[in-house]
Structures are given as structure tokens and as C-alpha cells.
Amino acid sequence: MKIVYSDKHAAHDPHTFFVRGVNRPAAEQPERATRLLAAAKGDKHEVMAPRAFGNVPAAAIHTPEYLDFLQTIARDWAQLPNASAEVVPNMHPARYPATYPKALAGRAGWHQVDLACPIGPGTWEAALAASEVAATAADLVLEGARQAYALCRPPGHHAYADMAGGFCYLNNTAIAAQRLRGDHQRVAILDVDVHHGNGTQGIFWERPDVLTVSIHADPLNYYPYFWGHAHETGGGAGTGFNLNLPQPLGSPDAPWLAAGDAAIARIRQFAPTALVVALGLDASESDPLQGLKVTGAGFQAMATKIAALGLPTVLVQEGGYLSDALGRNLVHFLAGFA
Ligand SMILES: [Zn+2]
């Protein structure tokens, strides 16, 4: 399989990640991507660099105001007296009507949904490169490849059109899907990351042309807490075009694969002509985030089911954190498409 990768991801090396009020070492480390790349190379996949698109693919999904914020905030923040090394908000607009502020701390609160998406000096460069990786993989599929894998870092599926969150800044999965829409009337997204793809759901909430399906740990007890419930089915013209399949915390392979069957049945009914898989590997039993207990064989079985759809498919790397199984699980998943 063709693998698209940029080493610019390493410019983003976050240090802020609040867990139960304590600032912990960030789980989303550059080593994730180097381990995934090493595993893919060891498995004889062909690796190529992304094409230079600038912010054009990102601008098809994200608002101009948000892109300006991501591009400039770290530089401007560094000029503030006593500012932290990474941009982290100290207030959010919460659930009530609000007005866009001028102060940098206010803009940070507007555009960063949580304290797990710090913005450092290299965040924009890395996120932009990841969006180019996703767009390049989508273009390879548009040009005739049956599948392509976008080794994106930072990940993207928690990012909304105007908001970062959960280690994510630009929604690479949404960017790939939108790119495929250029030639395909109906595109489906299947998100198998252990966390609900809340940003992706939000972006396509009112759209009937992009079906969004997510299998994840139940948000009643797991990030992103507020989104990912089964009753969220889309809004307006998009009503019925979002499917959430939350799983009890700690679920093993069997129910996860059964959810995969339900997801695939809905995708068949939708009859798309192209597919994006939001490929989080953090549902692994070995993942430090410990949401579900999927094995390597489980990942391969899920991939085999997805491949049987026979659709042109872009795989976009989402989560999956440092463990001895990380690279192995990627190899298992890609083997499902062999
Ligand atoms: Zn995740």
C-alpha cells in the first residue's frame, strides 16, 4: 500500500496534557509517528512525501478565522508578559451565547475546546503538513489507487471547523473525505479510534453527502464525554447520516467486531463510492489510554471486513499511543487490505 508521510510532524512536540487536574507528559508524542513509519517500512510498504498544497485542503473544512488563529497564535502569545511556552486557554465560552474576543487568551478559549490541545511554535507547521499528507493520500485514490494510508500526526478527528481539541488541530479525516467528494457523490467515514470522532461528526452534522460512523468507548465515561452517544444522528438535511456505536469500557474483540458489522451494514445501505477510515489504534488492549481491549487479530479482522466493501479507501492515522504493540497493530490493520 502507498504510505504518505512527512517528517514535519516532529515540529509539534506538546508538553501540556491535563489529567485529573495534573499536567502530565503528553501522550501524543513524535515517537508515535516514527514507530508507525518503522513498522510500515518493515512491512515493505512504499513511503512517499506529501504534495505541497499549502492550506487549500484545510480551508475546504476549516474557517478562515480559525486558520488565522492556528497560524499566528503561538508567535503572538510569546510576546505576552509571563506567557507559557504553549498556548493553553484559561477560560471557555461554555454553553451560552458568546461573542468572539480580541484578547489572545479569549481567542484561545474560543478555538481550543480542552486543555489537551496546546499550541507551540511548531504546531501549525506540523498540522499543516498532516493536512497535506491526508490530501495527498486522497488524491492517490482519486487517481486510481485502491487504497492509500495517510500517516498523519498530529491526529485530527477531534478538531471541529473552528476548534482544536484532544491532540487535534486540523481534521485530516474530514479533509480527505472532502477531497474525495470532488469525484464522488457520496463518501462514507468509518472511525474506529477508541474515542468518538466528535470533530468529524460536527463538521458533517448537517450534510447528507458524507455519512459519518464512529465505533468508540462510551462517552458517558470516556473522552470526549459530551458527544458520541447513539441518539446523535445528524441535524437538518444531515439527519440520519451520522451513526454512533458506543461500546462499554474495556470491551474486547467480539463486540467491537459486531459493531463493525453494524457500521458496514449502514455504509452498504448508504452506497458510497469512496471511504475514509479514521484509523485510531488506541482501541488496543496494550494502549496506555485503556478504553477498549482490541487485539492485533481484532484489528486485522476489522480491516478485512472494511476491505470487503471493495471501495476506494483512504486510511487516515488518528490516535494510538506508545506501547510495544503500536507498530504491530498497524501492520495487522494494513494486512486486512492485502
Ligand atoms: Zn483516540
Task: Report mean pLDDT, rounded to a whole number.
Answer: 97
Instruction: Give the biggest sheet.
Output: 8 strands, parallel
Shape: globular
Strand content: 5-15%
Strand order of the largest sheet: 4-1-5-10-9-6-7-8
Q: Which ions, cofactors or small ligands are bound in this entry?
A: zinc ion
How are helices and strands ordered from N to C? EEEHEHHHHEHEHEEHEHEH
Taking Cα atoms only, what radius of gyration do you get, to the nearest Å?
18 Å
Q: Give the class from helix and strand content and strand pairing.
A: alpha/beta
Characterise this structure:
This protein is an alpha/beta fold and 338 residues long. Helix content is 34%, strand content 13%. It has ten helices and ten strands. The strands form two sheets. Strands 4-1-5-10-9-6-7-8 form an eight-stranded parallel β-sheet, with helices on both faces. The protein has a two-stranded antiparallel sheet with strand order 2-3. The radius of gyration is 18 Å and the shape is globular. The termini are close together. The mean pLDDT is 97. Zinc ion binds next to loops. Zinc ion (ZN) is lined by residues 193-195, 280, 282, 318-319.
Summarize the structure.
This protein is of the alpha/beta class and 338 residues long.
Topology at a glance:
Elements: E1 2-4, E2 18-19, E3 22-23, H1 30-42, E4 46-48, H2 56-59, H3 64-77, H4 104-111, H5 123-142, E5 147-150, H6 172-180, E6 187-191, H7 198-203, E7 210-217, E8 242-247, H8 253-270, E9 274-279, H9 296-307, E10 313-317, H10 326-335
Parallel strand pairs: 1-4, 1-5, 5-10, 6-7, 6-9, 7-8, 9-10
Antiparallel strand pairs: 2-3
Helix pairs in contact: 1-10, 3-4, 5-6, 8-9, 9-10
